[in-house]
Design brief:
Length: about 350
């Protein structure tokens, strides 16, 4: 099948070729759709798009209006010139067609992760707990896949992180609880020690209504570099990994406490370093902060709640763009999109 089609071609069934080959391997994981094309039967094109299993990336050389805009909402993201179209389904860039080709290359490098991410984001709903479970089931599936195995092989064997006396600092002052990630030597990576200590700290607020405000921050030059790569692949089994992520992770607690939580971010906020703060009711970032979701390049999807928290702030389309491109988002764009609330 062709990797790029016009909107009109969707009416004729373009993109609906079998996703898998005879060995169960993904064929052409990403389909780009030219939205400059004026489709005659917008209803049929939209219905067809909703049956396509592949990642769908639209692109246009100008504003997307009329029926094409409704079609764009059914896709996974649409690329347009900067300032051409507003709305969460659009990402502005210098060269939309070239950017679409880069996303296709990223999906082709890790097709299983790319397709799973699209399916998880499309299935997202208002129920946060259900969303976290869906994300974790998908994440455990990919942990057992060939793409993550290849990433582990390239990474090579690493020793486990050394112990830390106080991986998270907790300070109580009247009704304010200050929680500081405290492993700056590891860029506050969200490993087991930091995760468990953060959960314990959040449980103080969950059990004590006199805690009126929780402030979450990170010590050192960066808030968090995300999951500790030295611990990746060390879970005893995939089922245990699922239970730890969902019942032992910080995402659900942060959501429950969101109206009392302010996250204050700085430096690099990677993976869990933005997935978790995105649950907070208020997110403030320092000038120069950057935000990145790199998991697809590892054969995975965001696994700390990012397929739930980030879309609730910026929409599933821009979340797909962040995760598939893997590139950092600057602080001003993050504020414009709503990923953060203020720059201070």
């Amino acid at each position: 099948m062709t990797a790029s089609v016009t909107a009109s071609a969707l009416v004729g069934g373009a993109g609906r070729d079998p996703l898998l080959d005879e060995d169960g391997q993904v064929v052409q994981p990403l389909l780009t759709i030219d939205l400059d094309d004026q489709v005659d039967d917008a209803g049929r094109a939209l219905a067809s798009a909703r049956t396509i299993d592949r990642v769908m990336v639209g692109f246009a050389s100008g504003p997307v209006t009329g029926p094409a805009r409704e079609l764009a909402r059914a896709l996974d993201v649409t690329l347009v010139p900067k300032g051409a179209s507003s709305g969460r389904e659009f990402v502005g860039c210098e060269e939309p067609a070239s950017e679409a080709a880069l996303l296709r290359a990223a999906a082709s490098a890790n097709p299983q992760a790319a397709v799973v991410l699209a399916e998880v984001l499309r299935a997202g709903g208002e129920d946060v707990t259900a969303g976290l479970h869906l994300e974790s089931f998908a994440y455990s599936t990919l942990l057992g896949g060939s793409e993550f195995a290849s990433w582990l092989d390239e990474r090579g064997t690493r020793p486990l992180p050394p112990p830390a006396a106080e991986p998270v600092l907790v300070e109580r002052a009247a009704g304010r609880l200050l929680i500081t990630l405290n492993r700056p030597e590891r860029r506050n990576a969200y490993g087991r020690l930091v995760r468990d200590s953060l959960v314990e700290a959040l449980q103080i607020a969950a059990l004590d209504d006199s805690v009126e405000q929780v402030v979450l921050t990170g010590g050192g030059p960066s808030f968090s570099a995300g999951g500790d790569l030295d611990e990746f692949g060390t879970a005893p089994d995939l089922t245990t990994a699922h239970f730890v992520r969902t019942f032992g992770g910080a995402g659900r607690l942060l959501h429950q406490l969101s109206d009392r939580v302010e996250a204050r971010l700085n430096g690099h906020c990677v993976g869990a370093g933005i997935e978790l703060p995105a649950f907070a009711g208020r997110v403030v970032a320092a000038p120069g902060a950057t935000f990145r979701l790199p998991e697809v390049s590892m054969g995975l999807i965001p696994g700390a709640g990012g397929t739930v928290s980030v879309p609730r702030r910026i929409g599933r389309w821009r979340t797909m763009f962040m995760a598939l491109s893997g590139r950092p988002l600057d602080v001003q764009t993050a504020k414009t999109w709503g990923l953060i609330d203020e720059i201070e």
